[in-house]
Amino acid sequence: LVFVTFANLAWATDRPRSVVTDRRPDAQRPTTMIDSITIFSKSGAVLYHRSLDASSSDPSTPSPRESDLINSFVSAALIGRDRLPSSVRSSKRLILSAAASTSSAATTVAEWEDGSSLKSNVVPTDWTAVALYPEVALGRRGGPDRIRTLLRSTLREYGLFFRSVTSVAASSSSSSKRGEGGSGGDGDGDAAE
């Protein structure tokens, strides 16, 4: 199910992708570049990370640069929310300067969506999804809410995946506890006749 989420991401990047092939002519293909998407809880646990940076050795692990940028985002947008201009709070788009990071790379934009804005029973309110992309991609985004729509979809799909995984884990845990009860037979037809 996680791969379904990032099948949606295929339309948001012009980098080569192996999972999904975009067969539209180049003139119709969207050109937004996203470096990474991360879902984390406000307690600090990173639930999911996917890097689309070609230089990343493991797409599920943030590079040091991405970690710096995510930490800068958390400091500015979540911890320092009251100090942000109202336009940034309402647009949920923050420009992270290269000076905020140890890297000398170009300026990066962080766009985010949180679970509290979804009004969904699938996504916990303390989850936040953030997309990082280069500032030069701002003019190529294709619509004012394109990235945030992608983030909302990603949160919903990951919420469904998370709920499914935790319910399977809970049911297997409860079935193993029933098997340890020592009642002799559990009515599953395994007893010798």
UniProtKB/TrEMBL annotation:
Residues 167-193 are annotated as: Disordered. This is Uncharacterized protein.
